[in-house]
Design a protein that fits this description.
alpha+beta; two-stranded antiparallel sheet; 2 helices; 5 strands; about 10% helix; globular; binds iron/sulfur cluster; Puta_zinc/iron-chelating_dom; YkgJ family cysteine cluster protein
Length: about 120
């Protein structure tokens, strides 16, 4: 992960939304997400523990939202986590990113997200 990744000083989405996904992503079903980090929320879905009710905050999120955070389940995180994009990560805004940040008093990210070095400028 890049050190100028804005998510490392944010974490708002992990402390705002219910982060749910198909239970088959859990380790006990052959997936990657540790079962003890989840809670069942429907017959076919689990959510990251701590996000099942408001105020939501994933128990796998360490640190202070808006300052410095780290996902302690990063390598094992669900598809929901993997697919959530920061605004302008791929050149498009993500209203859900903006919404989560606003809920924590953070401004929306501005494009471009971070300076990109072209290959010929990389030493
Ligand atoms: S709200 Fe956006 S910037 Fe903040 S951690 Fe989530 S994706 Fe990253
Ligand atoms: S598992 Fe990690 S990325 Fe997913 S909601 Fe929790 S802290 Fe955020």
């Amino acid at each position: 992960m890049s050190t100028n990744n804005p998510c490392l000083t944010c974490g708002a989405c992990c402390a705002y939304f219910r982060v749910s996904f198909f239970w088959g992503e859990c380790i006990s079903a052959g997936g990657s997400v540790p079962d003890h980090l989840t809670v069942q929320v429907s017959p076919f879905h689990v959510a990251m523990l701590g996000t099942q009710s408001k105020p939501a905050r994933c128990t796998s999120l360490m640190g202070d939202v808006g300052c410095g955070v780290r996902c302690t389940a990063y390598e094992q995180r669900s598809s929901t986590c993997r697919e959530f994009e920061a605004s302008w990560e791929h050149g498009q805004p993500n209203p859900h990113c903006d919404m989560a940040r606003a809920a924590h008093g953070l401004p929306p990210l501005d494009p471009p997200l971070q300076p990109q070095l072209s290959p010929d400028r990389v030493a």
